[in-house]
Amino acid sequence: HDGRLEGYVSIFSLGDYFIPKPKRATSMRKVTSSINAIIRSIGGTEVVAYDATTVDDMYVRVAAMELESFGKSATIEGIPNNKSVIVVGDRSDVHLRAIEMGVRIIIVTGGHRMKADVLERAKAAKVSVAYADTDSATTAWAVRAATLVGGLVQRDAFTFKPQEKLSVARRRIVQNPALICNVVDEDGRLLGVFTKTDIINPPRAKLVLVDHNELSQAVDGAAEVEIAEVVDHHRLGNAPTHQPILFINRPLGSTCSIVADMFRTADLKPSPQIAGLMMCGIISDTLLLQSPTTTPLDADLLQWLARLADADPRSLADMIFNAGSVLSSLTPAAAVRADCKLYTEGERRFSVSQVEELGFTNFWKCEDALLEALEKYRMENGLNFSCLLVTDIDSQSSLFLIRGDAEVVQAITYPQKRPPDIFDLPGIVSRKKQLMPYLGSLLGGTNESA
After folding, report:
1. CB distance 187 to 4 below 8 Å
2. How confident is residue 450, by pLDDT bands cut at 50, 70 and 90?
3. What is the bridge-based pairing of β-strands 397-404 and 416-418?
4. SS3 of 316, please?
5. Residues whose CB is less than 8 angstroms from the CB of residue 443 and which lie 6 or more positions away in sequence, other chains included
6. Partner of 408 at 20 to 30 A CA spacing, among 21, 53, 265, 356?
7. CA 17, CA 147: separation in Å to the nearest integer?
8. CA-to-CA distance for 186 and 443, rounded, in angstroms?
9. How many beta carbons lie within 10 A of that of residue 240, not counting itself?
């Protein structure tokens, strides 16, 4: 319902329903359906139908015995007449008896038709009538197939969340006899299915880490797959690999510069759209070549891409930086998570987020909420401290927010803008080249003093 997983129908439940079991004759006759569904299932013709859409438990009976015996079996089995589906050929005597009994529907098989006067009696008694071209045995099986699938659904579906790790899934599968595993989201909507074979012998996924090389910054589950390649411009913090890989790490202002240089070195030209996207990356990472991380190669590649994209870097930068304030368009929690990276220095784990603004006006409207969001993020992730660098693109300076480790906070040498956890960092705009080396030296000092 509404994409949500209700359950599943297995081949075993279908077999249990359709395979005859002489000791369970009544259950073999049962069909939970409607008159309309039964007529569709047998490929028949509706002559007259009453309460045709009402779903009810009905019981199939084939009238193949003498008239005197007809009805006795139903009485013995306790089947109500008004729930009986009578499958019969051209036997007017049985038709009349069934009408007198007030059965739910009479299905006349073999291409035969009910006599006109008998049909009028059926209408008067409000007994539904349908015609089928197939013989009685075939028709009876087709009636059984009209059962609505809801009655066969097993509700104990074996489910997984999409973010569940393969190692956890394997352990759960070993302990569960289910053959099909269902992946559902938080609202119970079905996203896909997999089998035990899929999970025991999964296709070997490979990842290329781009613009990062630390697993703490990678997608969930990255530690369980093969890292095939790294293209990055940040500090080294990569986990060991099982075999040699292509590892490209260059001290440029943007990973987009590295990718663009790979295009140019291979004598390939990206499409105008891709060139424009790489321009956006370089402009954003280097603050239009104003960041301390900028190199002459970044500037050269930006001009090369500009010619391919037929775009002006200054105009594109204005569009990017004027697109909207992160702090005014996102909640404090979302702003903290938007560009957040996790780091480990010695025994300390911490996060550093960054947002870029045109001025600090929007910041001073929500500084307390941002500090609360930082603290909540720190607690949720078990970190020693969490930081947020709010950079003013115009003045090329930043404000630094920190929550957590008191020893680290006390060791910060920059002037406090608002004690005790907001600091003024003039001239600091780069998390990678300016802030992280400072924090690294700071943590080294606190570790030594400890």
Report:
1. yes
2. very low
3. unpaired
4. helix
5. 345, 346, 348, 408
6. 356
7. 10
8. 39
9. 5
Tokens of 161: 């969340």
Q: What are phi and psi of 388, to 5 degrees?
A: -135, 125
Per the structure block, which two tokens stand in for 154? 């097993």
Residue 268 φ/ψ, nearest 5 degrees:
-115, 150
The pair of three-digit structure tokens given for residue 57, joined into one six-digit string: 């438990």
At 438, which helix (H) or strand (E)?
A: helix 436-449
Q: Please, where are the H alpha helices in 126-235?
A: 136-144, 166-174, 196-200
Could you tell me the domains of the chain?
Answer: 11-151 (3.40.1390.20), 157-200 (3.10.580.10), 214-321 (3.90.1640.10), 326-449 (3.10.310.20)
d(CA 203, CA 321) in angstroms, rounded, equals 42
Of residues 299 and 150, the one with the higher pLDDT is 299
Please count the other Cβ atoms lying within 10 Å of the Cβ belonging to residue 14.
12
Alpha helix stretches (DSSP H) within 254-331: 255-265, 272-286, 296-309, 313-321, 326-329
Separation between Cα atoms, residue 241 and residue 171, nearest integer Å = 25
Q: How much is the pLDDT for 188?
A: 85
The C-alpha angle with vertex 226 and arms to 221 and 232, in degrees rounded to 5, equals: 85
Predicted confidence band of residue 394 (pLDDT cuts 50, 70, 90): confident
- DSSP string over 330-364: S-HHHHHHHTEEEEEETTEEEEEEEEEESSSTTGG
Distance CA 375, CA 359 (A): 24
**Summary mean pLDDT of the chain:** 89
Token pair 């001290």: residue: 251
Per-residue model confidence as pLDDT tens digits over 164-175: 887 788 888 888
In the chain, the amino acid numbered 261 is D
The DSSP H or E segment spanning 57 is: strand 56-62
Q: Tokens for 196, please give them.
A: 């035990």
Q: What's the CA gap between 338 and 217, in Å, rounded?
A: 13
d(CA 12, CA 236): 55
pLDDT of residue 243: 86
What are 21's two structure tokens? 């079991």
Nearest residue to 426 (alpha-carbon basis) of 400, 388, 403, 387: 400
